[in-house]
Structure formats: C-alpha cells, structure tokens
Design brief:
Elements lengths: L8 E7 L4 H12 L4 E8 L5 H8 L4 E3 L8 H15 L3 E4 L8 H6 L4 E5 L11 H8 L3 E8 L9 E8 L6 H24 L3 E3 L5 E3 L6 E3 L2 E2 L2
Parallel strand pairs: 1-2, 1-4, 2-3, 4-5, 7-10
Antiparallel strand pairs: 5-6, 6-7, 8-9, 10-11
The structure holds 5-O-phosphono-beta-D-ribofuranosylamine.
C-alpha cells in the first residue's frame, strides 16, 4: 500500500510490554517533525510499562486485554473492530506478543508491520538470541517486515545486523541489538511517512529512491 503524503499518516502502535520500540517511533515523529499521527498506543496488557510512557507523552492509549475474551478469534474480532474505527493507514507491532489470526491479517492486508529480533527468515518465534547462539551464526539482527498470516514471515522492509562475539549471551545480544531495532524501525516509519514504501506484486518491497535498507550496527549502508 502506498500512502500519499498530503495527509498525516495515521498509525496505530500495538505493544505488550516495555515499549522501547514504540518510544523510538514516537521520538522519531517528534524529532523529525514527521507527518505522522499516532491514533492509538494499544496494549493487550494493562500493566505494559509502555502505556505509562505514552500516556505521559499525551498520546491516546488504551488496553484491550486478551484475557477478557473467550477465544483468540473473539479477541482478534474486537481488536479489528477497534482498529477499523480508528482507520489507521498502518498498524505497527512493537513488541506485541499476541499472534494475530489470518482473518485479522487479511483484513489489514499490507498495512501491518512488525519488528522481529532476528534476521528473518532465520529464527522466527521466541528466544531468537538463544537460537542464534545455538546455531553459531556470526551475524544476528532484526527485521522490519510486513505481516502475513505466517508467523514472523513476510516481505522484508529493512534489516539491521550485528556481529556475534565469542562471549555473547542471549542478554548481551538483546542489549546490543535493541538500539539497532530502534534505528531501523524509526527509519522505516520515515519512509512510510514519505509515501515511499511499496509492496509489489510477487511480495517484494521497494522503497522509492532507496538502494540499501540494511544496517551494519547503527550505520545504514549508502
Ligand atoms: C523487541 O526485541 C522486539 O523486536 C520484539 O520484542 C521486543 C520488544 O521490546 N518483537 P520493546 O517492548 O519494544 O522494548
């Protein structure tokens, strides 16, 4: 989906916890005066620390607890109705720890974006840093991608990579990767706000005027 930048881009940010990626997105909007309106910061957990941060920033926040619903489908349906009412151009998953069903994903086809802490297609799912260490890979990283009904899969918008050291642990990898996640996701939001991101037939992404969408550490390839 392409956005024409005459109107501010409406984004809904979905979180489940700390919300540091959400903070990086919100900070990028403020710092770069991006034409982006955050129409909600929504959490499926009332105790998500990110909600407090967003509330303190004056953003609209809300909780839709999955525990209040009898089934996964019922939660998805309520979330879908809520988001439809807000009419976001994009739904940005930022540490949102619920798997969204295929009906939900198809409804918002091409409008849901996620950040995953691995170089997809390697290491979908949980414990990605542990998985990377167990496989002995020498590069690890993060991926911002369009969401498809297949978990942690879908057209890749951008990736950031870090080298794995002999003394790395899952915690040290997570800590080194997190600032890269923030940088990559914020840059993707800039491209979205500029209306440059296109999802092409065949499922590849093109970002108009951008050759490289790859970071080595915190440096974007030029
Ligand atoms: C990040 O590592 C993100 O890639 C993953 O969950 C973590 C969320 O962290 N999906 P935060 O809530 O954004 O701080």
């Amino acid at each position: 989906m392409e956005h024409t930048p005459e109107q501010p881009l409406r984004v809904a940010i979905l979180i489940s916890g700390r919300g540091s990626n959400m903070q990086a997105l919100v900070d990028a909007v403020a710092a770069d005066h991006l034409p982006v309106q955050v129409c909600t910061v929504l959490s499926n957990r009332a105790d998500a620390a990110g909600l407090d941060w967003a509330r303190a920033r004056g953003l609209p926040v809300e909780c839709l607890s999955h525990r209040d619903f009898e089934s996964r489908d019922a939660f998805d349906a309520a979330l879908l109705a809520r988001l439809d009412a807000l009419a976001p151009d994009f739904i940005l998953l930022a540490g949102f720890m619920r798997v969204l069903g295929s009906d939900f994903v198809r409804h918002f086809d091409g409008r849901i974006i996620n950040i995953h802490p691995s170089l997809l297609p390697a290491f979908p799912g949980l414990h990605t840093h542990q998985q990377a260490l167990a496989q002995g890979v020498q590069w690890h990283g993060c991926t911002v991608h369009f969401v498809t009904p297949v978990l942690d899969h879908g057209p890749i918008i951008a990736q950031g990579a870090i080298p794995v050291g002999a003394s790395d642990t899952p915690d040290s990898l997570a800590a080194r990767l997190l600032p890269i996640e923030h940088r990559v996701y914020a840059q993707v939001l800039r491209w979205l706000a500029e209306g440059r991101v296109a999802l092409e037939e065949g499922g590849c992404v093109r970002v108009a005027g951008v050759e490289h969408r790859a970071w080595a550490g915190d440096t974007l390839f030029e």
